[in-house]
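tokens incoming
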């Protein structure tokens, strides 16, 4: 069972997922950034416990060598992630599994 996020970063304006966390009491942080370093700085400097992005975003971020100095407790994807290396890389960086649209159970 996964906990309800306190602060979720929606990297994309995806209406189908935007309301679910809000209805469960989460605060939604929406900021569309394509600069990898700025994304990691935002994750490190804000108490964002859930990150929600597309497969392309995870793939772009996957190329960055970075330590996990974030508040992240959950990783979500707005679409299926078909490349298993993306999921394994993120798991090695954060010790968190990316839950994609194939694996959503409930926030």
């Amino acid at each position: 069972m996964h906990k309800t996020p306190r602060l979720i970063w929606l990297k994309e304006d995806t209406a189908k997922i935007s309301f679910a966390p809000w209805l469960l009491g989460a605060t939604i942080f929406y900021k569309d950034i394509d600069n990898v370093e700025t994304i990691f700085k935002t994750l490190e400097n804000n108490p964002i416990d859930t990150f929600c992005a597309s497969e392309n975003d995870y793939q772009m971020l996957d190329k960055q060598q970075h330590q996990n100095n974030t508040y992240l407790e959950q990783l979500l994807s707005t679409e299926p992630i078909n490349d298993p290396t993306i999921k394994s890389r993120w798991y090695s960086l954060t010790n968190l599994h990316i839950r994609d649209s194939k694996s959503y159970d409930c926030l």
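note: The CA atoms of residues 5 and 59 lie 23 Å apart.
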